[in-house]
Amino acid sequence: MSNFLTKSLLALTACSALLSSVAFAVPITDVQEYSNNTAGEYFVDIDANKYNSPYYRWQDEDWGWTHNAIAGTFNSIQLDISAFDVDYFTPSSGEIDMIYVFDGSDWLSLGALAGATDIWAFSTFDLTSYSWAQAQVNAGLQVKMDIDVLTQGWAVTLGKATLTVDGGNQQCVPTPGVPCTAVSEPTSLGLLGLALASLGLGMRRRKAKIAA
Known about the structure:
By secondary structure, the chain is α+β, with helices and mostly antiparallel strands. Helix content is 25%, strand content 25%.
């Protein structure tokens, strides 16, 4: 078998693997925000209302939401929650707003919201390593928040929550009322294009040598 043919077969094998990965990895970002609030959900509509009721909520006003079901098998799962005015905290004082997700049988704590006084910021929770995560994302991930766990008089507003699988297909900012934007095609598609282009270039060069 010629060296060129061997290289061509290797390139086609790589392309086939890339096509398979593209076919089974469908990046999705499920966004929960004001536009799809249901009863008992309090994502704020615009930044100007961040201090207003019913969005700016206190320790006795805990609430939760459910993400849309996402079918498939995933390489990564990430939950990002946009919160406003999450003040400092230590293990014994300050604002602790705890986030929980349903794991199929019980509510599991992911940790507290991060942030700072009077700003919007995303808190990121990586669910990839949890054995139950894929099944719960397939079913519709349930999330809830325990506001001001230490009952020290803190309040918080949420802008949106994004559940992202395999890198997602939208780019979002924490500020409410700002639409998410579509992201570029997956890197694997770009690599596939490069591989096919290289293969085509090699074939043209070989034909040119034969003709000469």
